[in-house]
Design brief:
The complex is a heterodimer of chains A (477) and B (484). Chain A is 40% helix and 19% strand. Chain A has 477 residues and is α+β, with helices and mostly antiparallel strands. Chain A folds into three domains: 288 residues, no CATH class; 114 residues, no CATH class; 58 residues, Arc Repressor Mutant, subunit A (Orthogonal Bundle), CATH 1.10.10. In chain A, strand 7 and strand 8 form a beta hairpin. Chain A is elongated, with a radius of gyration of 30 Å. Chain B is built from 15 helices and eleven strands. Chain B has a single domain, classed as Alpha-Beta Complex (Amidase signature (AS) enzymes), CATH 3.90.1300.10. By secondary structure, chain B is of the alpha/beta class. Classes of the chains: A alpha+beta (477), B alpha/beta (484).
Chain lengths: 477, 484
């Protein structure tokens, strides 16, 4: 039987507001437990929530960037359940009337085609605290620093058909929220999290199959692996004539397996109802228009511009614009290089990307300043250094030596352009290789490379190969 | 000293006839001597009250006194008070001391008022008789075999017994007006949003509203003036200037149109109460008011709608009392479930549990539409009734309660009978309107309350309408003998 995979994602993006969504406490990560929770976050008697308008602005920006309507009137609702890290016994969320309506976003598939993924809605809600089970021998520690942190929950349509598509979508949203500067995208700190709804149906079937919700998958790699093992699990059940149970499953990355957390029957009845402590959120056209004006250039717009302005391939432009910082870095390189956009992309997406990758570093952490790299690219294109020397210069820059001109100076990497010096050098090589000279003059033209190679070796790459070529050819005539 | 009005007290303080410390000591002594008969106070704050009085005296001497500087008051134990126990009448919060002041507490402090203590109340304000308190029932000063009404029974009894010239209360379904009526004093529930709910422990957030108790409308105007105002920490608080409530107290009410709803004079109404109210309305006629019969057709739906909305909100509001961070925690919980079950089981009384269960039920999947949504629709109908009425009349008058104070234990066995004692007050909360109750007669030596309902933010008018009545009558001047 051939199965079609159906995936929908619920992404929780932590909004990078300074204070919490309903209180004035700080949202900074990594403070001592319970030092960033005020009476409101602790759910003390009599305290009341007050909506942080910054969070609303951010949600509106997101909505506008995915072409979704912004609700003129949305409602905060209480989601009721008991858990020790949920201080009030309810989470303030949005249920029937979310702030952002139906939108969409385009993703690129591996074959270069693009696909539109629907976004059902996005709503504002508060995060819960953290339960810490380690370190407390048989007890649970509660840290409420995270309680009340603003989240934007972005719910997709079940439009994805493979783990790869899911990842592409997730990466696109990840990139978008960072472009909008509404989320720092830090997955290790939990600022960007994802739950995946996965189901299978017979190829061609209309009706969706029963889904499992995968929770707690906190990296792109784990999302892909979790979805794939879940697809396998469901396929096995269906192949053997069984039925998939609607349930919430947890992914265990150590075992690369998903485990049942709770079934539909065990699911909470959240008893949603409008929060009487908060008035409906009303947003007028003027506010929406004002936000439209503050929107930065978004990934897709930037990508098109890069293709036009810098004559880049779709592939290169996609990589560069997938990350706002990377795109900015690239543009600085181009500027410093004297508009060498193609050579610049080779170095940024090539050598630099490889080095960053190897060290598991982000572009923001790059030890090489964009202007330095740009200057180096400029030197290459002006023929002042060779590609080979450039690689050496790059090494020094990577190790923190900075200015490429100073590096060239300090390490004696200046190219040998003095023709007398080169002539002497070529003469020495010819004299040292009589056999090869004989063979070359006997017609083996390809030995020219051998002489050039020898010369490059002696000059440690500092000579211009083209100049050497000419010179050797002339000498061996 | 304890029969003086706020105007007289302010005058005496300013002229140096007596100091705030003396005044405070006088009330503290009365509480010590008399409260054992009433159980109106949960906490008496001798030391902090005298300290506040001392500071008030300095302020008065420096000529910097405000409306209530140096005036003692009793604070309902639902308002958080920094460093002083706030129990809400519950075992759950018996050990709870808030690390912050409610906004109302803050305003009173800022004004220089002197807090004598925290008053007894129905547990989490759920009740109409002040019998559900963990600290035992409050008794009515007019007849200690009777209830003072609830939930703000401690505050009402304290003012009626002259243990405090002023007291705060909260009104979710009648919890200020009904005890004011049963204790023969003046109590006003302001428009929803007039008084900040910040630090006022929530029962039903969309209905709760703080307000004053006093012996007269004039005195109440002073306390309401101080309690009112916008607070950005309460999103439902309305940012609207607070008028000077005492300024309009002399206005003539000649030509005022008073609506009298047929529905408030139905079968359930005690004949003695009915007669008192009719007499009171005649006083208004004499003052030049026009009386108009009106109808509020959805009145009978108010109690059922209320007992869906209020429990629904309370079931969620009270989820925070889980034994994890503050309040009562059971001994040696075996696991999380056990911690929740026993902490809540032990910490809450029967009436609170009943309402939590009721509220949880009406919000449950499959019942939400039939109960909660329906109740919200009814709420709108009730608001519309009032809206229509106020296009014809200036104020609405009727009895505050169907009967005078009942005996302790008389209605505890039958919650529905108890719920019906708020039949005339509840609709006002559902609509968010202001309403007040003033004493307007006696039946069997127990006070009768006249309820006056106004349009949104018409507190100034209501207070004056009440004040005009109190210029003509002296029901508000009567005091129970044992406490006069």
């Amino acid at each position: 039987m051939e199965w079609e995979v159906v995936i929908g994602l619920e992404i929780h993006a932590q909004l990078s507001t300074k204070s919490k969504i309903f209180s004035g406490a700080s949202t900074a990560f990594g403070a001592m437990p319970n030092t960033q929770a005020c009476a409101v976050d602790l759910g003390f008697p009599g305290v009341l929530p007050v909506l942080n308008s910054e969070a609303v602005t951010m949600a509106v920006k997101f909505g506008l960037s995915v072409d979704a309507p912004i609700s003129k009137r949305s409602v905060f609702a209480r989601k009721n359940y008991f858990y020790p890290d949920l201080p009030k016994g309810y989470q303030i969320s949005q249920f029937e009337l979310p702030v952002v309506g139906k939108g969409s976003i385009d993703i690129e598939l591996e074959d270069g085609e693009s696909k539109t993924i629907g976004i059902t809605r996005a709503h504002l809600e508060e995060d819960a605290g953290k339960s810490l089970h380690e370190d407390f021998q048989g007890k649970t520690g509660i840290d409420l620093n995270r309680a009340g942190t603003p989240l934007l929950e972005i719910v997709s349509e079940p439009d994805m058909r493979s783990a790869k598509e899911a990842i592409a979508y997730m990466k696109k949203i990840h990139s978008l929220v960072q472009y909008l500067e509404i989320c720092d995208g830090n997955m290790q700190e939990g600022s960007f999290r994802c739950d995946a709804n996965v189901s299978l149906r017979k190829k061609g079937a209309e009706k969706l199959g029963t889904r499992a919700e995968l929770k707690n998958i906190n990296s792109f790699r784990f999302v892909e692996r979790a979805i794939n093992v879940e697809i396998e699990r469901q396929a096995e059940i269906l192949e053997s004539g069984g039925k998939v149970v609607q349930e919430t499953r947890l992914y265990d990355d150590a075992l690369n397996k998903t485990f049942s957390m709770r079934s539909k029957e065990e699911a909470n009845d959240y008893r949603y109802f409008p929060d009487p402590d908060l008035l409906p959120l009303e947003i007028d056209d003027a506010f929406i228009e004002a936000q439209k004006k503050t929107l930065p250039e978004l990934p897709d717009q930037k990508k098109r511009r890069f293709i036009d302005q810098y004559a880049l391939s779709l592939y290169d432009a996609s990589i560069l614009t997938s990350n706002k910082d990377l795109a900015a870095y690239y543009e600085q390189v181009v500027d410093a290089s004297g508009k060498q956009s193609k050579l610049s992309v080779n170095w940024v997406n090539g050598e630099l990307a490889a080095s960053l990758n190897k060290e598991n570093m982000q572009i923001a952490q790059s030890p090489i300043k964009a202007t330095d790299l740009g200057v180096m690219v400029g030197l290459i294109s002006a023929g002042e250094i060779t590609g080979k020397i450039a690689k050496t210069v790059f090494e020094y820059m990577w190790n923190g030596e900075g200015d490429p001109l100073a590096i060239i100076d300090k390490h004696g990497l200046k190219p040998i352009t003095d023709s007398a010096e080169l002539e002497k050098l070529v003469d020495d090589i010819i004299a040292a290789n009589p056999k090869q000279v004989e063979q070359y003059q006997g017609g083996q033209q390809k030995l020219l490379g051998y002489f050039v190679g020898q010369a490059m070796k002696v000059t440690k790459g500092k000579a211009d190969p083209a100049q050497l070529n000419q010179l050797i050819k002339k000498k061996l005539k | 000293m304890h029969s003086k009005s706020i105007v007289e007290l302010n005058d005496g303080l300013k002229k140096g006839e007596f100091s705030s410390v003396e005044l405070t000591q006088h009330y503290l002594q009365r509480i010590k001597k008399l409260d054992s008969k009433l159980n109106a106070f949960i906490t008496v704050c001798d030391d902090s009250a005298l300290e506040q009085a001392k500071q008030a005296d300095q302020r008065i001497k420096a000529g910097q006194s405000s409306l209530l500087t140096g005036i003692p008051y009793a604070h309902k134990d639902i308002f958080c008070t920094d460093g002083i126990k706030t129990s809400c009448g519950s075992k759950m919060l018996d050990s709870f001391t808030a690390p912050y002041d409610a906004y109302v507490t803050e305003l009173l402090k800022k004004d220089g008022a002197v807090m004598l203590g925290k008053t007894n109340m129905d547990e989490f304000a759920m009740g109409s008789s002040s019998e559900t308190s963990f600290y035992g029932p409050v008794r009515n000063p007019w007849n200690t075999a009777c209830v003072p009404g609830g939930s703000s029974g401690g505050s009402a009894a304290a003012v009626a017994a002259n243990l405090a010239p002023l007291a705060t209360g909260t009104d979710t379904g009648g919890s200020i007006r009904q005890p004011a009526a049963l204790c023969g004093i003046t109590g006003i529930k302001p428009t929803y949003g007039r008084v900040s709910r910040y630090g006022m422990i929530a029962f039903a957030s969309s209905l709760d509203q703080g307000g004053p108790f006093a012996r007269s409308a004039e005195d109440a105007a002073y306390l309401l003036q101080v309690m009112s105002g916008f607070d950005q920490r309460d999103s439902t608080c309305v940012d609207k200037p607070v008028p000077d409530y005492t300024k309009s107290l002399g206005d003539s009410i000649s030509g005022l149109t008073i609506g009298v709803p047929n529905e408030y004079f139905s079968d359930g109404l005690d004949t003695g109460v009915a007669q008192s109210i009719e007499q009171a309305i005649k006083v208004y006629e004499k003052l030049g008011a026009k009386i108009k019969k009106i109808t509020l057709p959805n009145t009978n739906l108010s109690v059922p709608a209320y007992y869906v909305v209020a429990p629904a909100e309370c079931s969620s509001n009270l989820s925070r009392y889980d034994g994890v961070r503050f309040g009562h925690r059971c001994d040696d919980p075996e696991n999380l479930e056990d911690l929740y079950e026993r902490s809540r089981g032990e910490g809450f009384g029967d009436e609170v549990k009943r309402r939590i269960m009721l509220g949880t039920y009406v919000l449950s999947a499959g019942y939400y539409d039939a109960y909660y949504l329906k109740a919200q629709k009814v709420r709108r109908l009730i608001s519309n009734d009032f809206k229509a009425a106020f296009s014809d009349v200036d104020v609405i008058m009727g009895p505050t309660t169907p009967e005078v104070a009942f005996k302790l234990g008389e209605k505890t066995a039958d919650p529905v009978t108890m719920y019906l004692s708020d039949i005339f007050t509840i609709a006002v909360n559902l609509a968010g309107l202001p309403g007040l109750s003033i004493p307007a007669g006696m039946v069997n030596d127990l006070p009768v309350g006249l309820q006056i309902i106004g349009d949104y933010f018409s507190e100034a008018k209501l207070l004056n309408v009440a004040h005009q009545f109190q210029q003509e009558t002296d029901w508000h001047k009567q005091s129970p003998k044992a406490f006069s």
